[in-house]
Amino acid sequence: MKKLIISFIVLLAIAVGAKAQLVAHIGADANAHVLIAITITNSTDLDFGNINALAGGTITIAPAGPTYSVPSLEPPVTGTRALATFAVTGEGSNTYDIVITPPTDDKILHSSDYMLLSDFKAYNASDTDITSTGGTLATGSQTIRVGATLTVEAAQVPGDYTGAFDVAVHYN
């Protein structure tokens, strides 16, 4: 009987030992890093300058300078033409998306008269169009510039036309 009890204990030890080898445990840490908030500030507004609207057409403001669909739209030598300029700040060398929301009904207004504003594009310091690819922060900042196309009607009513567009950025 003593041999039977010893045999049973040995078999039980083998069975428990075999089962213990089928299970393994290891711990892991859970980590998170909260990024510095990404921000954007405007330093220069988009400006199409003075326009001679005899024939109508389009004016595009881009890094290479303004382009005109009709020569009669070329402004006189006075007046400013400029891309809108924004400073984007955030953390490190993270990438971000750019979303440009045009003015209401894509119009800039003067009283009840308007001109259409379309085809917004964002550019980095190298004049590369980053509208669809987004930007990359270099040590936490990047300057972007935004241009667009303005449609001017023949004999457009004279006056100052204004409208606001929105530029939003968010981390990828």
Percentage of β-strand residues: 25-35%
- Structural class by helix and strand composition: mainly beta
Series of H and E elements: HEEEEEEEEEE
User: N-to-C terminal Cα separation, in Å?
Assistant: 73 Å
Characterize the overall form: rod-shaped
> Helicity level, as a percent range?
10-25%
Number of helices: 1
The chain-level mean pLDDT equals 88
Beta strands, count:
10
Taking pLDDT < 50 over at least 5 consecutive residues as the criterion, the unreliable ranges are none
Give the biggest sheet. Answer: 7 strands, antiparallel
Radius of gyration: 32 Å
Give structural attributes.
172 residues; mainly beta; seven-stranded antiparallel beta sheet; three-stranded antiparallel beta sheet; 10 strands
Topology:
Layout: H1 2-20, E1 39-44, E2 57-60, E3 67-68, E4 84-89, E5 95-101, E6 107-110, E7 113-123, E8 135-136, E9 141-152, E10 166-171
Antiparallel strand pairs: 1-4, 2-3, 2-9, 4-9, 5-8, 5-10, 6-7, 7-9
What would you say this structure looks like, in words?
This protein is mainly beta and 172 residues long. The protein has one helix and ten strands. It has one helix spanning 2-20; strands at residues 39-44, 57-60, 67-68, 84-89, 95-101, 107-110, 113-123, 135-136, 141-152, 166-171. Strands 1, 2, 3, 4, 6, 7 and 9 form a seven-stranded antiparallel β-sheet that branches. A hairpin with a 2-residue loop joins strand 6 and strand 7. The N and C termini lie far apart (73 Å). The model has no long low-confidence stretch (mean pLDDT 88).
